[in-house]
């Protein structure tokens, strides 16, 4: 039975382009994969917080304000954990 590969939402090529546009001459595939995985985890956490906020407000639609709230909340959590 074949092993199912984990599917990702963010393709590697745009991550590679971002790194090159920021001045990298060469980028390892491992570096691109690590950055993609990190960005996806952050995006999932923001999405989860935003969905919770919209449900709390008894709405089905996630709004720009829900995303802003989720980003702000996660920033506070991260800064608190890092003692910033």
Automatic annotation (TrEMBL):
Keyword DNA-binding: yes
GO molecular function: DNA binding; protein heterodimerization activity
GO CC terms: chromosome; cytoplasm
Keywords: Chromosome, Cytoplasm, DNA-binding
Domain named Transcription factor CBF/NF-Y/archaeal histone: residues: 9-71
Localization terms from the record: Chromosome; Cytoplasm
Family: Belongs to the archaeal histone HMF family.
PANTHER family assigned: ARCHAEAL HISTONE A
Name of protein: Histone
């Amino acid at each position: 039975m074949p092993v199912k590969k984990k599917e990702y939402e963010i393709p590697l090529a745009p991550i590679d382009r971002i790194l090159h546009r920021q001045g990298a001459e060469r980028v390892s595939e491992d570096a691109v994969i690590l950055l993609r995985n990190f960005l996806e985890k952050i995006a999932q956490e923001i999405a989860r917080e935003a969905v919770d906020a919209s449900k709390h407000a008894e709405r089905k639609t996630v709004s720009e304000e829900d995303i802003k709230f989720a980003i702000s909340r996660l920033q506070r959590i991260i800064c608190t954990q890092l003692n910033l």
